[in-house]
Amino acid sequence: MTGVTRPHAPVMLTECLAHLSVQPGRWYIDGTFGAGGHTSAILAAGGRVLALDRDPSVRRFLDADALHEGRLLFAEGNFSELGAHAEHLGVAPVAGVLLDLGVSSMQLDEAARGFSFRQPGPLDMRMGTTGLSAADLVNHAPQEELASLIFRYGEDRYSRRIARRIAETRASAPIETTEALAETIARAYPPGQRRDHPARRTFQALRIAVNDELGALQGALEALERTLAPEGRAVVLTYHSLEDRIVKHFFKGSASLTLLHKKPLLASPDEVSRNPRARSAKLRAASNSPTPRRETP
Ligand SMILES: C[S@@+](CC[C@H](N)C(=O)[O-])C[C@H]1O[C@@H](n2cnc3c(N)ncnc32)[C@H](O)[C@@H]1O
User: Fold this and answer.
1) Minimal CA–CA distance to 244: which of 191, 189, 270, 281?
2) How many Å lie between the centroid of ligand 1 and the Cα of residue 182?
3) How confident is the model over 45-93, as pLDDT tens digits?
4) Where among 180, 210, 240 does a domain terminate?
5) Same-domain status, 224 and 263
6) Average pLDDT for residues 245-258, to the nearest whole number?
7) How far is the CA of 275 from the centre of ligand 1 (A)?
8) Is the CB of 81 under 6 A from ligand 1?
9) Which CATH number covers residue 74?
10) Residue 52: CB within 6 Å of ligand 1?
11) 236 lines ligand 1 (CB under 6 A)
12) Are residues 100 and 217 in the same domain?
């Protein structure tokens, strides 16, 4: 695609392409289109791409020529439905599926999306356009439920204190902005316990809950297992331990998928120095071929 600036740098691009093992003319699903960096590289290698994203604003990054030529298809939706989209559009079974999880730089940088505690904005955090927002959760979920999700998804040891402070604050007026929530969380934190911004973990937890990120990932893994052609490849980039654990267990427990590496691959120091987002990336790849069993005597 010429003349379009991509505000999100694709992570571990060379490694993703190598593990997808792109074959010209075959179909691949990019379940997390974003700014289209990975899709564009698959197209350049001769592959065809069904791109999915639950965020309709990414359409501006679609390559008009590739769409016109039918080498690129786009569907707005959840990647947990990737099998249904591939069937519906007549591209199943596919030669590979790529998932690059989390939010894009565009989503984080746009204050009105409400993902960032560093930018004032409405407390939204939805990647798509439907469902409950972070403000709905923060203002209406029971205190115990908030504590539990901040603990599970944010791994914050002060989850109970934060949930109590949120409940006290919202009793007088709803918490409707990122700033108001960040301030509430900062007041709940004991002094001297701040390695990073006290709101970072709670914001992560709310984002995961609002978008049901772990449920969607589990659904996508089950769908890709059914949608990959024999010898097809699955490549998943995760950015925190909860996601990586789900991917690792799924691939290990699958009767049809075989992990290509025991340990996840990490971004090179050079890439991390250029793109700090790559620092926490873990790549796991699997092939749709049964694990060879050891001969029994
Ligand atoms: C990290 S970005 C992908 C960046 C992309 N690989 C690139 O090179 O530009 C993740 C994208 O996946 C989308 N996304 C996250 N969860 C999704 C889901 N469950 N279904 C569909 N899209 C999802 C987000 O809206 C976001 O645009």
Assistant:
1) 281
2) 25
3) 999 999 999 999 999 999 999 999 999 999 999 999 999 999 999 999 9
4) 210
5) yes
6) 97
7) 17
8) no
9) 3.40.50.150
10) yes
11) no
12) yes
Q: Kindly report, residue by residue over 1-42, the tens digit of the pLDDT.
A: 455 788 889 999 999 999 999 999 999 999 999 999 999 999
Q: What are the b/e assignments for 237-247, b being 16+ CB within 10 Å?
A: bbbbebbbebb
Residue 101 CA to ligand 1 center (angstroms) comes to 6
> Distance, CA 74 to ligand 1 centroid (Å)?
13
- If 0-12 CB within 10 Å is exposed, 13-18 middle and 19+ buried, where does residue 283 land? buried
CA nearest ligand 1 atom 5, residue: 34
Do 182 and 60 share a structural domain? no
| Full domain range(s) for residue 140 | 129-210
Measured by CA distance, the residue closest to atom 13 of ligand 1 is 32
